[in-house]
Amino acid sequence: RRFGSDARADLRERLRERLFDEGVDDHRSNLLVELSAPAVPAPEAAAIVEHLLHEGLAFSHKHFTIAITALGRRGLWTRACELLAEMRARELEPGALTCNAALHACQRGHAWRAALELLDEMRGAGISLDLVAITSAVDACGKASRWREALALFRDALASPFFQPDHRCFGAAIGACSSGRSWETALSLLSGMEDASVAPDSACYNAAMAACGGSDRRSGAPLDTWARALELLAAVQASCLPPDLISYHSAMAACDRSGRWAEALQVFGGLLHRGLAPSVISFNSAIKALRSGPGRWRDALHLLGGLPSYDLEPNLGTFNMLLVVLSEQSQWRQILAAMDALRARSLTPNAATYRSAFL
C-alpha cells in the first residue's frame, strides 16, 4: 500500500506519543516485538527502525540484529546492511549473528555483490564464516544468476577442513547451476552429497532437475538431459522423499526444452496419479510442451478445458502457452477463438500474447 510523506510524519508522531505513554523500556520491547511480526508492512517497519535509532532506543547487538532481520524479511536489504555501519558508529562491532542477519537480507534481495563484500568484511574482522553465512551468500549469488561466483564460493568453503555443508548449502549451490545451464555440475554436486555424508532433500533434486531443464541444444547440452531429469524424478519417487509440484514442473520443463512432449505429458499424468493437486502452472507447463507435438493442438485445448475440474481458472500465461501451440501448428481460427476467450475472461493481452499468437 502507499505510504507517503504525510503517513510517515503521522507514524513518527504516533511513535513519539507511544514513547511517552509506555515508557522507554516497555516502548522498546513493544516495538521489537512488532518488528518480529510479519503483519507489519515494510514502510512501517522501516519507520520503527528509524525511530529506535533516532531516540537512542537501539543500543545492543540484540536490538540491531532484530532490526536487520526485520528489514531483510521485507526486502529492505540496503538499509539492513547500512545498520552495520550504524552499529560501528555507536561503538558496537557486529558479530557473527548480526552479520548473518545482514547476509540473509542480501540473500532475500538477490544482492550478490553486497553479500560478497560483507563476507570480506567479516574475514577482515576475524569473524569465522559459518554454514549460515556461506549458504546465504551462495544463494544470493545463485538467485542473481551469478552462478560462477556461487560455485567458486562454495568450492572455496569446501576446501576448509572445518566446513561441513548441509543439504541447504548443497541445494543453494545446485540451484545456482540452473542459471548457468550447468547441468553437469549440478549432477556432480548432487552425487557428491553422498561422499560428504549429506542426504539430499527434495529441494536438491528439484534444483538438479531445473538445471537439466535449463539446458537445451543451443547451450551445447546433449539431447538426453530430459532423461537425466526423469531419472532424478524417479529417484525422488523411489525414496522416502515426497515429490512436490516443483519436482514435476522441473521434469516437465526439461522434457519440453528437449522437445519430448510425450514424456512431458507422462510426467503430468504421473503428477495426477500421485494424488497431488495440480496448479495452473502444472497445466501451463503441460500445454507448453505440446508446441513440439505435431497435431497435438487438440490436446492443448483439452488441457485448457480440464482446469475447472480442479477448481482452477486459466490465467494469461495459460492462454499465452496455448497460443504458442496453436501458432506453431498454424491453427489460425483457433488462435482467434483463444484471443476472444481470454478477453471474455477479462484478461488483458500483453506483448507476450501477441508474440505467442503470431510467431
From TrEMBL:
Keywords: Repeat. PPR repeats lie at residues 60-94, 95-129, 244-278. GO terms for molecular function: mRNA binding. Transmembrane segments: none annotated. This is Pentatricopeptide repeat-containing protein-mitochondrial domain-containing protein. The keyword Glycoprotein does not apply. InterPro entries: PPR_rpt (IPR002885), TPR-like_helical_dom_sf (IPR011990), TPR_mt (IPR057027). Residues 45-156 form the Pentatricopeptide repeat-containing protein-mitochondrial domain.
